[in-house]
Amino acid sequence: xxxxxxxxxxxxxxxxxxxxxxxxxxxxxxxxxxxxxxxxxxxxxxxxxxxxxxxxxxxxxxxxxxxxxxxxxxxxxxxxxxxxxxxxxxxxxxxxxxxxxxxxxxxxxxxxxxxxxxxxxxxxxxxxxxxxxxxxxxxxxxxxxxxxxxxxxxxxxxxxxxxxxxxxxxxxxxxxxxxxxxxxxxxxxxxxxxxxxxxxxxxxxxxxxxxxxxxxxxxxxxxxxxxxxxxxxxxxxxxxxxxxxxxxxxxxxxxxxxxxxxxxxxxxxxxxxxxxxxxxxxxxxxxxxxxxxxxxxxxxxxxxxxxxxxxxxxxxxxxxxxxxxxxxxxxxxxxxxxxxxxxxxxxxxxxxxxxxxxxxxxxxxxxxxxxxxxxxxxxxxxxxxxxxxxxxxxxxxxxxxxxxxxxxxxxxxxxxxxxxxxxxxxxxxxxxxxxxxxxxxxxxxxxxxxxxxxxxxxxxxxxxxxxxxxxxxxxxxxxxxxxxxxxxxxxxxxxxxxxxxxxxxxxxxxxxxxxxxxxxxxxxxxxxxxxxxxxxxxxxxxxxxxxxxxxxxxxxxxxxxxxxxxxxxxxxxxxxxxxxxxxxxxxxxxxxxxxxxxxxxxxxxxxxxxxxxxxxxxxxxxxxxxx
Length: 627
Hints:
This protein is α/β, with parallel strands linked by helices. The chain has four domains: 2-218, Rossmann fold; 225-364, Hedgehog/Intein (Hint) domain (Endonuclease - Pi-scei, Chain A, domain 1, Beta Complex), CATH 2.170.16; 393-433, no CATH class; 446-626, Nucleotidyltransferase, domain 5 (2-Layer Sandwich), CATH 3.30.420.240. 33% of the residues lie in helices and 24% in strands. It is built from 18 helices and 32 strands. The strands form nine sheets. A seven-stranded mixed β-sheet has the order 3-4-2-5-6-1-25, covered by helices on one side. Helix 1 (2-21) crosses helix 2. It is globular, with a radius of gyration of 28 Å. The N and C termini lie far apart (94 Å). Residues 435-439 and 613-627 have low confidence and may be disordered.
């Protein structure tokens, strides 16, 4: 019997050791009924590394996105703080959410874990103030234990909770946790509330960070206007998709406001019709509307306005003066009117700016995650983003394409029902964690096929180059790809991509040509910077073919989209070529994506391979000039 007890005690001690060292083991040790999925373990691993980086004073920054009700708040806002303080009781945590009540409730949950018997088994010397603790230790210190703040007895460590916007002065933080700073969508889309959140983060929360301290944020929002919508700027008319940070559009008072950020593309399928003009937006896009003239103005999502007519507020045109209120109909857009669009954030204090030829007032966006990533793009803190879609879009490390993230919580049937209820746009943003709806744009998700092994040989191969070498962080990429044709199928064999200057582009071109030395035809789009490459390398590299497209990018992509639709095109599996994930993201967002260099290289190659490699008369003339 004693031997059995000894073995049991050894196993129990081993379990305790694992729980102290690993957050996932800690969660299971404290919660007998917790259903731990693989992605929960991934989050726990990321949080453990975050903790180690905080202790090493590496100033870690972490953004976690996962579908609603997937258990991320339990891990990040409840279990992680308790585990972290158990291991590092001298540390300080500040945790915040959209209200002080919710933040206080999370504070109480953390206290319950620390006061629980399982925690005391793991960390017997880490406890909170109580009569029982005072009786056992004889401690008379005035340690705090409220829903706003608690302190670790005999240590300097503490946990402070506050609603976003609340005061947290007087203490520093080794860890700052922000778990959804907005109460609901109406608040998230309020320019005043967003501005308050940004100001609070910059002037209050961020200034509380100790040297080397870390930040964890969980939240995301998008609501776009279609890219081809005309917008009046101080430089004249542009399309909404052409807007960039620094551009100036007009607010409803007729004064210029500055574009601060532009998000990735989202699908737009709601028509907003004033009778003079029709604007296309997403179901989540917000509008300032009135039920009737003279009624109070409210902020509403387009999806909730469908089927009714609403009054838009009057605006001041910078050209013609006052434009009165307009009765406006909200309907589902015809399929030919739907398309990709983006959200912008502006300096407009009320969040409203003017779009369309008739200057229609609409709402911008500026959520905290977008704000932080905008800062990161301009040299600010760099965030590690962890992203988990509800349903896998390709084979992953722990699941196959089409499988649910955590079927024990939500299986495919449940997720399908949720998608049907909320629509593809919200589904894409909230559950799939990206702003690309399932169908895609010119190219559809269902058309993509992956390979793990190439055919034994190819009937024909080409190298295809799209050139832009400005060597800046905001310029497009230089892309070189190798494609092959085997019978009726086309394969992406290899690709290189980067922001390179002229000299490095020359070197990369030659390296890629040597790597694929059996490929004779090397296609280079002559527009942009291709002509300079051809002129420099024509005596050193054989098979340079200048390409002078006469059609638009969209027309060229549409011409070869049939090959994808017919399932004649194969690209490498992400398991063997991780870079293909960037390729598919750009492919699905085309033509509204921020970049199209990979698509341009692809369309050029497939056009050449499917036509048998014949050179047009214009390109032959260009070759003769160079010879």
